[in-house]
Amino acid sequence: MAEFFIEDKDLASLKGKVVIITGGSSGIGLASVDTFLSLGASVVNGDIQPRAEQPAGAYTFVETNVSVWADLVALFKKAKETYGRIDHVFANAGVGPRTDYLATEVDDNGDLKEPSSLLLDISLKGVINTATLAINYLRQQPEGGSIVINGSSTALQRLRAVDYATAKHGVLGFGRGLVPALQAANLPIRVNLLAPAWTDSSVLPNLKAMLDSIGVEVQPASVVARAAAFLMVDTSRNGHVVYIQRGRYTEIEEAVLLPAFQSILGDDYPSEDEVLQRLHDAAVAAAAAAPAAEAEA
Does the keyword NADP belong to this entry (predicted)? Predict the structure, then answer.
């Protein structure tokens, strides 16, 4: 396991950078805003409601529903207009479990009611759209930038909160898929993911008190915030998944997930992404050869 440590000096280079965060008015997002500001960054927070107190520092709030594309567009426009650039984006906004796929409630016709997609709209589609806009803005700068996605340790296991698990599995797959796509496009944009275990946040009401009562240790939101800042400033990290439990940081993508799949795949068979690259290269070669063949004919 690739455990690592974060010291204050490791985060110093966030000073002067411009960071967009979604869901920065509570929980992990709130702790992240405070952490980024304390490090000297300018922060633009997109959330459905402002935080209780205005923080000190270069801070801008933009009312944003991440499930609404126009709201996200306005968030990024405001950040660029206010600070002239965007260096890092933390796709953090999310909500707690709320859909029962075993429900038997019916409508007036006696038909089963459709399950709510609210969590998926916020915690999955919202992350995807936030990252998509981030790529659009970061690619306009020669030095690019980085995207950090706040996932969950629930993406690594079975979880009976099905809508929450689905969203977190989805953002894990989305973030992992972006890495080779950006590399193939030669865009200088890094993507990293966080996978925190139980954290003092607003995912469930009174979460810390409830978990304390059953003897489950809860880590403060600030430790996740520090990991987000670290992934922004450490330019050597790209495509990493950082598991965070009890304030300990462990990189698991390159240390665990990819090696585990490679052991299943074997050394004599290509990965799916390698196959896609080969197909792309073959198509390019065929397109280049076509004019020459036509000329000879």
Answer: yes
Structure tokens at 88: 């890092």
- Where do the domains of the chain lie? 2-266, 269-297
Would you give the DSSP letter of residue 64? -
CA 19 to chain centre: 14
Cut 0.85: pTM above it: yes
Q: What pLDDT, in 10s, does the model give residues 18-40?
A: 999 999 999 999 999 999 999 99
Distance CA 57, CA 52 (A): 16
Residue 225: closest CA among 46, 23, 72, 52 = 23
DSSP letters for 134-182: HHHHHTTSTT-EEEEEE--GGGGS--S-HHHHHHHHHHHHHHHHHHHHH
Lookup: tokens for 176? 């992992």
Query: For the chain, what is the radius of gyration of the CA atoms?
Result: 21
Q: Regarding the domain delimited by 2-266, which CATH topology (the fold level of the hierarchy) does it fall under?
A: Rossmann fold (3.40.50)
Task: Give me the phi and psi of 191, to 5 degrees please.
Answer: -130, 125
Q: What Cα–Cα distance (Å) separates residue 175 from each residue in 83, 132, 172? A: 26, 11, 5
